[in-house]
Design brief:
The longest helix has 15 residues. This protein is α/β, with parallel strands linked by helices.
Length: 247
């Protein structure tokens, strides 16, 4: 996936470019709004846009980009006021990330934006990469759990499991990397939305519903103070039969 980074500060641009490259992204960096508008003509997959540019306001760059293209735009800026966020989003930005932030959070935001906008990332995993989801056309088998993203069907021990759309999305997200802990924020960004302002307990409610429908709470375990992981209960690991009752 090719990213266009419009950022004049070398202290931010250099580590950001290096960090994103470890996740398999190709980053083209320019220092001015004018150069960014010119390079955007080559149709990058996504634009990372700073607002404090030396030649023009990043909001004007965003307005110009949006007027001519549906390209996904994530604003990355030190302007963290609500008014700036609102203006940026109303001008057409797809997300708004205030500095300072971590590369892992930015990658999660990029993936969330590309899912919402339909842009399909094509990245090779770097050494610290957040694993990409398995190809949608290839069903995933996890012990006795069968997950088909293309048809959005789930089967467990040969029986269909009826999930709500959000429950399916949550299960599919955790199944990207079984055993890995996903933070609450990563899950909310990916399965809900970076701008979701509802109660965070909604995640706990969906986890509880998934555990109940899968018949064993051990399928989704809690990493206290961090988030959740998908695990394959030992009794189900070889698909030979149901586990013992809920613990």
């Amino acid at each position: 996936m090719r990213l266009l980074l419009i950022e004049d500060d070398d202290r931010i641009a250099q580590p950001l470019t290096e960090g994103l490259s470890r996740y398999g992204y190709t980053v083209e960096r320019v220092r001015t709004g004018a150069a960014g508008l010119a390079d955007a003509a080559d149709a990058p997959d996504l634009v990372l846009l700073d607002l404090g540019l030396p030649d023009m306001d990043g909001l004007d760059v965003c307005r110009s980009l949006r007027a001519r293209s549906p390209i996904p735009i994530i604003m990355i800026t030190a302007r963290g006021d609500e008014a700036d966020r609102v203006v940026g989003l109303e001008l057409g930005a797809d997300d708004y990330l205030a500095k300072p932030f971590g590369v892992r959070e930015l990658v999660a935001r990029i993936r969330a934006v590309t899912r919402r906008t339909g842009a399909l990332p094509a990245v090779a995993p770097g050494p610290d990469a957040i694993p990409a989801a398995p190809a949608a056309a290839v069903p995933q088998q996890l012990g006795s759990l069968h997950l088909d993203r293309r048809t959005r069907q789930v089967r467990l021990d040969g029986r269909d499991v009826a999930l709500s759309p959000r429950e399916f999305d949550l299960l599919a997200y955790l199944a990207q990397d079984p055993g890995a802990v996903h933070s609450r924020q990563q899950i909310m960004d990916a399965v809900w939305d970076p701008h979701f302002f509802g109660p965070t307990k909604t995640l706990d409610a969906h986890v509880a519903a998934l555990r109940r429908k899968l018949g064993d709470p051990a399928w989704i375990t809690t990493a206290r103070g961090v988030g959740f992981r998908l695990t394959i209960p030992e009794a189900r690991a070889d698909g030979t039969g149901p586990p013992e009752g809920p613990r």
